[in-house]
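[Automated response] Your request has been received and processed.

Submitted sequence:
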Amino acid sequence: MEIPSEIKIGPTVWQIELQDDLNESSDNCGVCLKSSNRIVIDSTQTLDEMEKTLLHELLHAMLDFAGVEDDEKLTEEQMCARLSPVLHMVLKENKVF
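Generated structure:
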């Protein structure tokens, strides 16, 4: 899979940026910047690692879209119920599904 330059989540288009050595400056392989609708991924990772990082950061963005708060306590079933329609929408809108 090639890392896309953007992904649509609901009405919002998120920009995907690759940055050299992000891990050195933030101790993360990726970051989801909700205030600017951007996901930044460390480009020094292997393609497989970048794909996994992108999925991780997309989950943060989708949880935000679904209205899940950091301190909210949800069961596994509640989390799946909130996230599955958002995941379906993202896959359909981005022609993955």
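Summary generated for your ticket: The chain is about 45% helix and 20% strand. The chain has a mean pLDDT of 91.
If you did not submit this request, please reply to this message.
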